[in-house]
């Protein structure tokens, strides 16, 4: 099969023919229909989240079932499906309680095992993880849900319990930030988006943000507090860097909730945070990572019901050979929207 291989940190991905994946006994092999290109893939590409080389990146995928393992009971060849990027075992105590994202036996395509920058991918633990795509959902949109939309959905509805009428401050206007904006608006919240790229802020306005703040021109936390009349009820950090994490905490009103979505890596693994604000404001800080597979129906129902249109997230449909250029773009302020691989021959 054709795949994009990472052979060295920051090296151009090598387009190569590699063997098709074997089918796990409890899993399936998918023909990949589309795969998103995410900042988390950039962390792998740069070596900030190191993997064993050579390696196939890619964790935001959907596909058609081509092969089914003997232990799988819920899926057959020809099913169109999607899977979370955290593939839980389905049988440990955490999984049995519905907390698959903290499964100690999880598998991570694109990180701990070969990913979906390829024509096919093996998906273990299929019955515990994969979900059927709604009839007619475009593969590019399904892949764009990837880790950005699903993680934002988990952050807003599970971790922060965002309520209608509340203010949400989104720090970082990339794919996760725009996903949080669209979902929060569908949930009845008001949203202010913070970024340093004017084009991203203009795009956020276009997508329905109630207000935007350019953190390169003003104190972002102070601006959010002024816009929201005392601070946001919920703040989302969507980059994984110290500056936006501190700003997210400081933008909250008392009893506010902050969710760390951005993955800290490299120099940002350890941050100096304003714990005085946490203490005095009685704030709640949450971490979140991924979404359990069983929560896909709630997200699909929101989309199918016409309550949210997520297609504006898709900025570019590209070929497999363009993946390196898209990863390089994350070195600086990336353009609005997300790129999705839809052509595995190109």
UniProtKB/TrEMBL annotation:
Its cofactor is Zn(2+). It comes from the Bacteria. This is Alcohol dehydrogenase catalytic domain-containing protein. Belongs to the zinc-containing alcohol dehydrogenase family. It holds the Pfam family ADH_zinc_N. Residues 8-341 form the Enoyl reductase (ER) domain. Keywords: Metal-binding, Oxidoreductase, Zinc.
